[in-house]
Amino acid sequence: MEKENNPDLMMEELEIENKLKKFRNTIVVLSGKGGVGKSTVAANLAISLGLNGFKTGLLDIDFHGPSIPKLLGLEKNEIITDEKGIIPLSYGNNLKVMSLGMLLRGQDEAVIWRGPMKMGAIKQLIKDVNWGELDYFIIDSPPGTGDEPLSVVQIIKKPTGAIVVTTPQDIAVADVRRSINFCNKVNLPVLGVIENMSGFVCPHCQHKVDIFKSGGGKKMADEMGVTFLGQIPLEPDIVSASDDGRPYVYFYNKSDTAKKIENIINQLLKNIDNAAPNPKTQTDEHSKEKLPKNFKRYAIPVSEGKLCLHFGHSENFVFIDYDTDKNEIVKNITINPPPHEPGILPKWLHEQNVDIIIAGGMGERAQKLFSDGGIHVVSGANVEKPEKLVHDHVNGKLIVGDNICDH
Ligand code: ADP
Questions:
Q1: Which atom number of ligand 1 is nearest to the Cα of residue 165?
Q2: Are residues 228 and 315 in the same domain?
Q3: How far is the first Cα of the chain from the last one, in angstroms, to the nearest whole number?
Q4: No. of H helices and E strands in the chain?
């Protein structure tokens, strides 16, 4: 039956669409074949994004062997549902995780999946899981260019793009060419190629040995005109960390290899910003404005017209542009913030070109997130009208007391 005539299908599509609207970026992690470290990359990418304050979702739909629960040490956790649907598992404050493996009862049970069942399972894992608002939704796709990655693209419709994971040797690289051709065919932007298991540095003599050769991924990426994101070496600690359910970038964050992974992720985020702008929000116009050098933009969380002491739960934000040459307020607008989710406000306020935040209370960690983004935070201000707070601040008269909020 055509979708137009089938209310159930139309309803399902609408439900999926509503879920996807809340994801700012969706990234599909692909590989030409199994065993190249695709799930390891997906898990460490998601963990790293979460640690950096981004709201992140990780969905494992590897029908041939869902391994994310094991990699994150979550395989014993039970699935719980409430009236809003399936509650995803949490890893730290910002990462939500769901896997086909969690829907299957026994890890060792072989499941025979037929095509439509696969499509149905993927849809269910998006629509019935309470993901909430996400900055990044990472999908660990099954390897190859078969039905499953195709289903993902059909369901998500417009993912931000794909990361292709490969190993350096020729065969794996030939497989990855097929993955890139697949992306081109289905209009899925390739955000970059990662060459995993690229060389091994002997822990005793520090000599580098290219066990699976090295550099193949880069050569192939150059030839195919896609971005090469970088190399991750063969790292014995990755194997033991994965086996023990202790994600590598979390437990070995000071290691050289973790730093390499971090660089790859930074490069990836740059590519996402350049290649695929986020969906427009009500504040796009405001954020696009170029402020003259003599203007300072203040952001103040308010409730009932006055400063709200609890930063993350304010009704609105008042943005005040102050002309430091003329010593006057030139613009004062009120905008609804995105829903309260840790990690979203720093990004959002940064996008609004804010220079200074005046807040009642704010935890140290949050203050650091803002200062890393170039925003100065003045905390401990009193419940006053935003205009008065700004005037007092520029005139050096702002009274700040104890920082009463510490989370
Ligand atoms: P895939 O998802 O492509 O099938 P996995 O992520 O499950 O691959 O990785 C396969 C195996 O290789 C796992 O045992 C994993 O710990 C290991 N592995 C992945 N990347 C590395 C690496 N850079 N160094 C050493 N072992 C790795």
A1: 3
A2: no
A3: 52
A4: 15, 18
Nearest to 80 by CA among 102, 50, 100: 102
Neighbours of 344 (CB within 10 A): 21
Domain boundary among 275, 302, 323: 275
Helices in 141-169 by DSSP H: which ranges? 147-156
**237 and 295 housed in the same domain:** no
- Domain end among 243, 275, 307: 275
Ligand 1 pocket, Cβ-based, cut-off 6 angstroms: 31, 34-40, 67, 196-197, 232, 234-235, 238-239, 242
Q: How far is the CA of 256 from the centre of ligand 1 (A)?
A: 18
208 and 303, same structural domain? no
Best probe residue, ligand 1, of 75, 242, 252 (max atoms within 8 Å of C-beta): 242
The per-residue pLDDT for 13 is: 86
Domain that holds residue 303: 286-394
What confidence tens digit (pLDDT) does each residue in 149-183 have?
Answer: 889 999 998 899 999 999 988 777 888 889 999 99
pTM score over 0.85? no
Note whether 342 and 209 are same-domain residues: no
* Probe residue for ligand 1, chosen from 28, 30, 39, 40 as the CB with the greatest number of ligand atoms within 8 Å: 40
Centre of ligand 1 from the C-alpha of residue 243, in Å: 10
Tokens 């290691």 locate to: 255
* Residue 363 forms part of a structural domain: yes
Q: Provide the domain count of the chain.
A: 2
